[in-house]
Amino acid sequence: MLVGVPLGFLAGLRGGVFETLLNQVITVFTSLPGFLFAMFLLTVLGGGIPQLIFALAITSWVSYARIAREVLRLKERGFVLAARAVGATETRIAVRHILPNSLTALLVSLAMGVPSTIYAEAGLSFLGLGIRDPTPSWGKMISDSVPFIRLYWHLTVFPLLALALATVSFMFLADALRDLLDVGNIGM
């Protein structure tokens, strides 16, 4: 989010060559399967928390940039035109009018992106590419317990339940944020 939002926001405000270039980069990253690309990066870089964060950030910034780029639609709305009419500078319009109106969609997107990131981390750790011992990870716990599943089934079931509960909770949070902030009319 820290990479995608500023890039998308600048592309939406400035347009031109920067926006065209960002669109091409977004198209390339969208065509890549994110989980497989993260697997490739972790295979090349090695496992560990910093490498895992880097791999997940590289594969997930695109959706935030795409949403932040929706600034183009907001630039032509009535409240922006009214601010221009009264003499507001482009910086003031961007900070006071456009950014707050795009933040609600970004917050909902962030809440919806957390479950997929949790699943990606768990999957990569399950495969032995993510977080390493002694740092705990639900994916690593599940992977370590698979050989003992017939006798000690609870070693697999409880991390799976915790993983499911965490991701479902974030999905409910995203749904509640969407209802609370009413971002359905922004054009996501």
Q: Explain this structure to me?
A:
The chain has one domain (about 5-185): Orthogonal Bundle (MetI-like fold), CATH 1.10.3720.10. The protein has about 190 residues and is an all-alpha fold. It contains nine helices and no strands. It has helices spanning about 5-15, 15-30, 35-45, 50-70, 70-75, 80-85, 90-125, 140-145, 155-180. It is about 75% helix and about 0% strand. α1 (about 5-15) packs across α2 (about 15-30) and α6 (about 80-85) packs antiparallel against α7 (about 90-125). The protein is elongated, with a radius of gyration of 20 Å.
How are the secondary structure elements laid out?
Blueprint: H1 4-14, H2 16-31, H3 34-45, H4 49-68, H5 71-75, H6 78-85, H7 90-126, H8 138-145, H9 154-181
Helix pairs in contact: 1-2, 1-4, 3-4, 4-7, 6-7, 7-8, 7-9, 8-9
